Amino acid sequence: MKKIIFAVVVLAVAGVPLAIGGKYALHVGSMIAITATLALSMNLMLRIGQVSMAQGAFMGMGAYSSALLTMKLDWSPMVAMLASAVVVGMLAVALGFVFLRIKGVFFVLLTYAFAQIVNLSIQEASTWTGGNNGLYGIPKLAILGFRMVEPSAFYLCALAVAVLAWAVVHSVFRSRIGAILDSIEQDEGLSRALGTNALRWRVAVFGLSAVLASLAGSLFAHHLNFLSPANFTFLQNVDLLIMNIVGGVSSPTGAVLGALILVPLPELLRDAKQYELLIYGGILLGSLLFLRDGLVGRLGRLSFARRAVQTMREAGHGAA
Amino acid sequence: MALLEVDGVGRRFGGVQAVADVTFALQPGEVFGVIGPNGAGKTTLFNLIAGLFEPSSGRVVLDGTDITGWPSDSVARLGIGRTFQGVHTFKGVTVRENLQRAALLAHSFDPLRHFGNLMRRRSSVDVAVCEDVARFVGLHDRLEETAAGLSYGLKKLLGIGMALMQQPRLLLMDEPAAGLNPTEKRRLGEVIRDIRQMRCIDVMLVEHDMKLIMETCDRILVMNQGRPIALGDPTQVRSDPAVIDAYLGVDYDFA
Fold first, then answer.
1. pTM of the model
2. Hey, is B81 helix, strand or coil?
3. Do A186 and B90 touch (CB under 8 A)?
């Protein structure tokens, strides 16, 4: 029953941009789906207790690589997107064996430095990337020769990737792998004493998170048809972090919920632009103070409370 | 052939020689104790075997495989289980899930090779084995309680149960009796003897509690200031002049 309600709510929410229709609503919908995928990639890292500032860089790599493969080598966008994700994932695995030996603040700084290097490289390699002037004329997404010119078609593709990303993160954490990752996060010494290679598991998660970020980056490139290094700064990572905190770190649904709330916010506040940061800050402060496990935690407790009330009522009927 | 051979093992931390030139071999089927005053290097010796530190000299050989300097998870996979000084459990989850996680962590270390098996649900791990081990350490009626809610003594027993889920060949126990009351200590002594006799797992323990050591160990290594000073069965060790000298004035009761 709970699953059916969940599916109905998801379908209803996903249907909103299609119902409103028009380029603008579908653009916002696509951006939510892309950002939700990114927030999921950050969620994976947070679940293993590491705040990564490299997710924006992986997104940028996916975006530029997909854009350049389609523009310079005439690859099909879908093939370019998948190939970029594989390469970025492999790169993350290689880097992970070095990065993930380091924890806490130092990991944040290390990934920050890495992201800066990637961003500066994009700026400097201007013959390829257009540098700070940006890269124009990236082709629209196409799947098996079918070009996603209609905004609704692209929206459905971005939505499919986001749903897939959610399903992957959800099933990983519901499975035995989730138990292993939780164990490593809670007590690494004990996990290792029991025979688990903690580094290898963390590297695997880092790789998966990079794949998701890269896919989102490629979608971003083929959606906007224009890229600039300014899209992939460290602020991107901070936004993803905030989405996870607002939505709830402890579940992939929280990450999606965070994106769903924070991405449309600037659009809704267009007439009150000067208050945008204030409201943004208020939401963050409010969720840090009042929502310990984010919105998902709050919803979970609500349904728990409802169940408790129902049980009491039934017990009351029984007694009467 | 000996299960574990420790050959001239030493470890230096800066200017401090924490452990120097320790040599012994564990005979199959024995409970082996390591004792010594505070700072004798017992726990360091343990950590050198379990792979938490790398020895600065000497060799550690498990059943013919040289494991000197191996990381702790590789040592664990080769068959050395360990329990910790103090308690280490996964606090927020139930006793059952602690045991399940222990089996999982011990037996599915390779993400790629075990992928299909690993994508199954968390709760499906070795139900029968969990219950068997829980009964063995006396936690079978507390399987659904969270680990954080157990008494200190029961948490320690859970730690032993988790190490058993690993199905080790050798179990290293670092001060298992520390912090336990006399009843719990008696129970612990029984569990250690059962581990040896019923599960056929060799046990090596570091302990301060002389009564437990004298009652459960077949052989005892006595250390002082990082060096071994005596090795023998409990009666030999008790009457060894070097041992009495090391403990003199420390008011130890040789039970």
1. 0.88
2. strand
3. yes
* Ramachandran bin of B134, using left for φ above 0, alpha for ψ from -120 to 50, beta for the remaining angles: alpha
| Domain CATH code at residue A79 | 1.10.3470
Tell me the C-alpha distance between B177 and A182, whole Å. 29
CA distance A74 to B143: 60
**Contact: A196, B106; criterion CB under 8 Å:** yes
Q: What is the pLDDT of residues A39-76, one digit of tens each?
A: 999 999 999 989 999 999 999 999 999 999 999 998 99
Cβ contacts of A192 on chain B, cutoff 8 Å: 71-73, 76
Q: ∠B181-B182-B187 over CA atoms, to 5°?
A: 100
- CB of A195 closer than 8 Å to CB of B109: yes
Q: Which of B97, B106, B119 is closest, CB to CB, to A194?
A: B106
How much is the CA Rg of chain A, to the nearest whole Å? 21
Residue A233 burial by Cβ neighbours in a 10 Å radius (0-12, 13-18, 19+):
middle
Q: Give the C-alpha separation, A197 to B106, whole Å.
A: 10
Instruction: Give the Cα separation of B86 and B177 in Å (integer).
Output: 9
Q: What is the ipTM of this complex?
A: 0.88
- First and final C-alpha spacing in chain B: 33
Q: List alpha helices for chain B, DSSP H.
A: 42-50, 72-78, 95-107, 115-118, 127-137, 152-165, 182-198, 210-216, 234-239, 241-247
Q: What Å distances lie between residue B255 and A65, A195, B215, B234, B238, CA to CA?
A: 74, 37, 9, 11, 10
Q: Which domain holds residue A152?
A: 2-319
Instruction: Name the domain count of chain A.
Output: 1
Rounded distance between C-alpha atoms, residue B61 and residue B49, angstroms: 9
